Each structure stands twice: as C-alpha cells, then as structure tokens.
Amino acid sequence: MASIRENLAAVRERVEAASRRAGRDPRSVLLLAVCKKQPAAAIREAYEAGQRHFAENQVQEFEQKRAGLDLPHAEWHLIGHLQSNKARRAATLFQVIETVDSIRLARRLNDAARDLDAVRLRVMIEVKLSAEPSKEGCSEQELPELAAGTRELANLELVGLMTVPPFTADPEGARPYFRRLWEWNERLGLSVLSMGMSHDFEVAIEEGSTIVRVGTAIFGERGTGPE
Ligand SMILES: *Cc1c(COP(=O)(O)O)cnc(C)c1O
Question: Helices 143-151 & 175-188, crossing angle to 10 degrees?
C-alpha cells in the first residue's frame, strides 16, 4: 500500500496537471486534506510531508482529535453541516467555516468571532444545487439574500461558495454543478470556490475550483471514528 506521503505527492501532481490542462496556475488551487475519521497519526504523517491545510466535518470529532495533535502551522476548515448551537465552538477551532447555510448561523458565528477578538472569521456559503433531501446547504433561491446578509456582518469575511454535487460514478456528471457554482461566484463577486473531492477534483479544477477537498485519495478508506 502506498504511504500517505506518496499519495499526497500523487494527488499534488494530478492537481498540477489538471491546472495546466485548464490553462491555470497550479498555485491557484488549494489542496485541503480531508481527515475526518482518520487517526491523529495519519494527520501527523501528512503534516510531516508538508501538508498544511486540513478539513474536518464535525466539531466534536475535531475537538477530541486535536488534543493529541500539535501542528503549529496547520490551517483547519470545517466542511460539514454546523448547527447554530455549536457555532461558538467551531469559531474557536477552525480558521475557515465552509458550510454557512442560514443567516441564523452566520449571525451566531459573527457573535462568536466578535467575542473572540478574531479580526474576521473567513466563511463560505454551502450551496445545494440538487434536490436530494440528504444534502445540506442553502438553495439557489436563498443564496443572494444570504450572501448579502452575511456580508453585512462585521466580524465575518465572506470569501466564496462551496458545494457537494450528487454522486455519479462518472465524474463528468458533476461538471454542470461545478459550472453552475462558478457562475454564482462570478455573479456575487466572490473569489473562492470549494468544489471537487477524490473522484472528481480534476473536473472541478477545469471548472474553476480554487479549493479541492480530498480525503480517501490521500489517506485511504476512512475508519469509523477518531482514535
Ligand atoms: C468527506 C468529504 C470530502 C472528501 O471526500 P473523499 O471522497 O474522501 O475525497 C470532501 N468534502 C466533504 C464535504 C466531505 O464531507
């Protein structure tokens, strides 16, 4: 089995190749290592291989795991659904919250950031572009109002949009969703686009992604919980 270091190198190469194919500067794409359900040792291995940007999908899981981690230069993104009542904890743990989906949550995060004296907490809006009931995110109908409302909050910095398209075995199935999110980003004057996972990040880069969230291609299959 390939090591995490080898997997990371291979993913970075694929990110660079996809960027060049799309006529983009590879440095315009941030590789986020999604380490949910991975043990601290695996995260440390990725850090030692030079990875600095990581993502978790649960506040509680990360709270438990990070006690055993000492990664001074790591930046953490939250990429899972966040309940308003956990906003305060999330604001202390993560540098970027990618999953704002309501004005209520945005306000809670703003209050938390203000109390923490954080300059401004970077946030993104998760957009639900398909009808699946299992998906999180704000609808396209709600998006302009939520973006405007979030921008009014002094302690948040709205940087961009994030989405998880419906899964299709063929990664090409995700392309129309990626394109649509890019169009929304342009329309709203935003610059950061978080889209693309292990099986479709190359398509996402071709469609303008600036953050790819890659888990299994780096760490292998996920376990059942933190260790
Ligand atoms: C788990 C997860 C990922 C990573 O998925 P892989 O298929 O393992 O690369 C990306 N984004 C979100 C929102 C996730 O929950």
Answer: 40
Low-confidence residues of the chain: pLDDT under 70 = 118, 224-227
**Protein residue whose Cα sits closest to atom 7 of ligand 1:** 198
Ligand 1 nearest-atom number relative to CA 213: 10
Q: How far is the CA of 117 from the centre of ligand 1 (A)?
A: 31
Taking only Cα atoms into account, the Rg of the chain, rounded to an integer number of angstroms, comes to 17
Dist. CA 215 → ligand 1 center (Å): 6
Count of helices and strands (H, E) across the chain: 9, 8
Binding site membership of 110 for ligand 1 (Cβ less than 6 Å): no
Asked if 47 and 53 touch (Cβ cutoff 8 Å), the reply is: no
In sequence order, what are the residues at sequence separation of 6 or more whose Cβ sits closer than 8 angstroms to the Cβ of residue 212? 15, 29, 30, 31, 32, 194, 195, 196, 197, 201, 204, 205
216-217-220-225 Cα dihedral, nearest 10 degrees: -20
Ligand 1 nearest-atom number relative to CA 217? 9
Task: Answer for the pair 86, 59: CB distance below 8 angstroms, yes or no.
Answer: yes
